[in-house]
Amino acid sequence: MLRPVYPLITERLVLRPFTDDDFDDVYAYHSRPEVARYLYWEARDREQVRTALERMTTQTTLTEEGQLLLLAVYWPEAGAVVGQVNLEWLSQENRQGETGFVFNPDYHGKGLAREAAEVMLRLGFEELGLHRVIGRCDPRNEPSWRLMERLGMRREAHFVQNEIFKGEWGDEYVYAMLAEEWRTRRR
Ligand SMILES: CC(C)(COP(=O)(O)OP(=O)(O)OC[C@H]1O[C@@H](n2cnc3c(N)ncnc32)[C@H](O)[C@@H]1OP(=O)(O)O)[C@@H](O)C(=O)NCCC(=O)NCCS
């Protein structure tokens, strides 16, 4: 069970649940085709963002496996929500989770995604007690797998054409980190 006390503060960022007031900031990146290129959804119009945001505002705790915790990443310097990070509880019995991240391209290349994703790993390992956290991406999504490598995750698998992604056969990288590896990095 994971019920973080919000907001979660890092050196530069404030992580907190989404609210309806975040609509413009979320639309600013959910509407961009380059953001959705390697995600399981297409660039969204205003109505689709409204529907997505409605769900996002509720994903604030993990009380049972299968749930997703999704947080807004607010950067005070920009006065805006610059992206989102998530942690999915894949299995209670096997203590497995998965993390993911989506950021507004206007704020890429500043280490903000890394700073926010580290919070997801900390919550997963130190508060939810996970044994292993994975991340998955399309091998063509280099910024994504580079970020996972910077986080200290290991590439465990390269699945070849394991799914039909946006109308064509797609590959998948699976990255992972164990609790023990997390503790070693933190020391
Ligand atoms: C995946 C994604 C979140 C990565 O974002 P990002 O901005 O590249 O990641 P980071 O926040 O770690 O920033 C990394 C870069 O900032 C640089 N950087 C600058 N200042 C930094 C700082 N203070 N600390 C750390 N890194 C810093 C790093 O050197 C790195 O640059 P490099 O890639 O040239 O080596 C982003 O590309 C994205 O949102 N993509 C679209 C959605 C998506 O595909 N998500 C993943 C689905 S699997």
Summarize the SSE layout with pairings.
Elements: E1 8-9, E2 14-16, H1 23-30, H2 33-36, H3 46-56, E3 68-75, E4 80-91, E5 96-103, H4 112-127, E6 132-137, H5 142-150, E7 154-165, E8 168-178, H6 179-186
Coenzyme A is lined by residues 35, 38-39, 100-103, 108-114, 137, 141, 143-144, 146-147, 150.
Can you give me a brief rundown of this structure?
The chain has 187 residues and is an alpha+beta fold. It has helices at 23-30, 33-36, 46-56, 112-127, 142-150, 179-186, and strands spanning 8-9, 14-16, 68-75, 80-91, 96-103, 132-137, 154-165, 168-178.
Protein described:
The radius of gyration is 16 Å and the shape is globular. The protein is 30% helix and 33% strand. It has a single domain, classed as Gcn5-related N-acetyltransferase (GNAT) (Aminopeptidase, 3-Layer(aba) Sandwich), CATH 3.40.630.30. It is built from six helices and eight strands. Strands 1-2-3-4-5-6-8-7 form an eight-stranded mixed β-sheet, sandwiched between helices. α1 crosses α3. The protein is α+β, with helices and mostly antiparallel strands. A hairpin with a 2-residue loop joins β7 and β8 (168-178). Bound molecules: coenzyme A.
CATH homology group: Gcn5-related N-acetyltransferase (GNAT)
- Main sheet: strands, sense, barrel: 8 strands, mixed
Number of domains: 1
* CATH fold descriptor: Aminopeptidase
In whole angstroms, how far apart are the ends? 25 Å
Oligomer: single chain
What is the CATH domain class?
Alpha Beta
Radius of gyration, rounded?
Answer: 16 Å
Mean pLDDT: 98
